[in-house]
Amino acid sequence: MGSVDYAVLIAGLIKPLVTHPEAVVVNVEVNEDVIKAVALVHPDDLGRVIGKKGRVAGAIRTLAHAAAIRNKETVEIEFNS
After folding, report:
1. What is the mean pLDDT of residues 2-7?
2. What span, in angstroms and rounded, lies between the C-alpha atoms of 20 and 3?
3. Whole-angstrom Cα distance, residue 23 to residue 72?
4. The model's pTM
5. What is the C-alpha to C-alpha distance for residues 69 and 3, in angstroms, rounded to an integer?
6. Position 21 pLDDT exceeds 70
């Protein structure tokens, strides 16, 4: 299995959802056992990324988690503006 570039994966999932795709930045930190990704979006787009009751954010987390499971990794995603 190849390693996953979580910054590209998460940005690719977020950019089609927002009105300011150029403002999407994903920073990834790798600790011993957890990969932490912080997705920064334009303040006007934060609601679009989170979605009603957090459903869109949950779906993005689910897809990233599915990619991480294949490599026996754990990924956490935080959304900020």
Report:
1. 87
2. 29
3. 31
4. 0.92
5. 11
6. yes
Residues 40, 26: contact at Cβ < 8 Å?
yes
Residue with tokens 């994903």: 26
Chain segment 31-78, per-residue pLDDT in tens? 888 999 999 999 999 999 999 999 999 999 999 999 999 888 999 999
Complete domains list, the chain, with CATH = 6-80 (3.30.300.20)
Tokens found for residue 1: 């299995």
Nearest to 39 by CA among 49, 48, 26, 56: 26
Tokens of 31: 């600790």
3-state secondary structure 1-69: CCCCCHHHHHHHHHHHHCCCHHHCEEEEEECCCCEEEEEECCHHHHHHHHCHHHHHHHHHHHHHHHHHH
